[in-house]
Structures are given as structure tokens and as C-alpha cells.
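Progress against Task 2.4 (sequence-to-structure conversion) is shown through the following example record, which the project officer requested during the mid-term review.
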Amino acid sequence: MIGVDLFSGCGGMSLGFQRATIKVVKAYEFWDEAIKCYGENFKHPIEKADLSNYELYLDDISNSNPDVIFGGPPCQDFSHAGNRREGNRADLTKSFAEIVSSVRPQWYVMENVDRSRNSLAYKGAREILKNSGYGITEIVLDASLCGAPQKRKRFFSIGLLDAFDGFLLHDLKKNLSNDPMTVRRFFNGSFDVEYYYRHPRNYNRRAIFSIDEPSPTIRGVNRPVPAGYPGHPNDPIEIVGVRELSTFERALIQTFPDNFIFPSSSKTTNEQLIGNAVPVKLAEYVAKAVMKYNLANVCPKEEDQLIQSL
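C-alpha cells generated for the chain above:
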């Protein structure tokens, strides 16, 4: 399968789809720092693109002949961290749907925060996609049940032309782990800390976590332990001697490989790139389900050649 990544960020979804043997041939992104990072880590081209003006890019995307268009439109306007008012960024969800509707690849995969499923932006995008002939599978996946050591819930809308709604639900659910992936188990006990600090949104929440549980969501900011942290009844230990995770450790929990390059000289930029990304293992989990279904139901003649590699 040939894939094109829209709103690629630094490439978490691209890397996961590549690991599922999908050939990613091009990516589109607007943020210069993300473009630079993506370019350091992938051989195929990435183009700077303001996809709110999606009509400008339809011919170029179509010329790649993608079997699957995938990506995560910027989500801040309906994220848990935001003010929950939908604005211009939410309009990019519609841009994704318009591109898919115009190019008409066999498949699409759209990713976003879990609450986006109920947004007006997604409901409008869904109508565009349904009117274009896509059967749609919708699911919220917890990354810690998909091989990543992080309790991060993301919504996926997955479409296949002329399929029935919910066509991929069984395949997506049957391979979910029964036990959340812990940091210790993922790194085979080789992680450098036993406990670490993750700054809470407010002090009504705990801030100290153990590597014997999944990490909480890796966000786009990484604040140090503040002077006078008051503690929380659910913190497993006292704050003494506990530190925040390093940028590198946070990238590893996002399941980027240890040789993935974050080229910016700005720690703040690299933290944002990492926090905005889709965990690679989560993207890979979804992409493998797409590939297996495609081989078995869309291109069965290819199944015998490729299914063993998944």
C-alpha cells in the first residue's frame, strides 16, 4: 500500500505506518520545526502546506496515487487541555475530509483526541466522508493496550470505500492487550528511574508516577519539579530525589526509536514536537489492522506474499 501523511508533525504516524509495511511516499505539514525534524528522519519528501487551502494541493496529493491518506488534523480547539471551543484549527478536520473526498483513496485514517469524536468539526467531516462512499470504523484506543507504555487515549476514524460501518472493529479489538504496558516492562527494566515527576494540570491531581504503570499522556510541555511542591495523597512516594523525565526519555515513551533525531536547539520546541506526536506503536497497531484487512478483503491475492511479515 502507498500512503500519504497529512498534518504529519515530526512523523509518529508515518513511522508507525512504515513499520506496518505501508510505503509512505510524501508528507504535508505547516510548522517549520516539524518539517525540519521530519526531513531529518525520513527519505521521502515533506512539503510545507497550509491545508486550510487544501484545493492548492489536491493534484499533488492525487499524483502520489495513495491507497491510504492518514493524519491527525491539529486538535487544540477540542482537546482536554484547551478551552473546548471549536475554532479555526477544528476547520482543518473538514479540510482532511475534503482532501480524502476529492482524491478518493481506498482508505483513510484520521486520528485525534478522544473528545473530538463528539465535535461539530468531526460530525461535518464524517458527513463528507459518508457521502463519498466510505464505510467508517470509529474507535477510541488506549495506547497502553496497543504496545506503548503510555495511557494515552486517541480517537481513530478509519474509512474504506464501499465498506460497511464498523468493518474494522473486530480486528482492532481482538489484538488489544489485557494488561496495560508499563514503562518497566516496555524497557525490560532498563529505564533510569523508578519514580518520576510529571507536572499536573492542577494540584488536585498527583504528579509522581512509578515505572510499574503506564506513563500518563506525554504532553507538549515538560515542566521541572517546582520549589515547594505540596505533594498529593495519591503520590506513591515523597518528592525528595524525584525528577522530571528528560526530553530523550519522553521521546522513548512515545515509542520513537533511540536514533530518532530531534534537531532543534530549543528544548521547548523538541518537547512540543514529542508531545504532539502520535505514539509510534499506536500508529503501527492501527496500520497493521488496516494492512491485514486490506490483504484479506481488498487484495486477497497479495495476502499469501505479505501476511507473514505483519
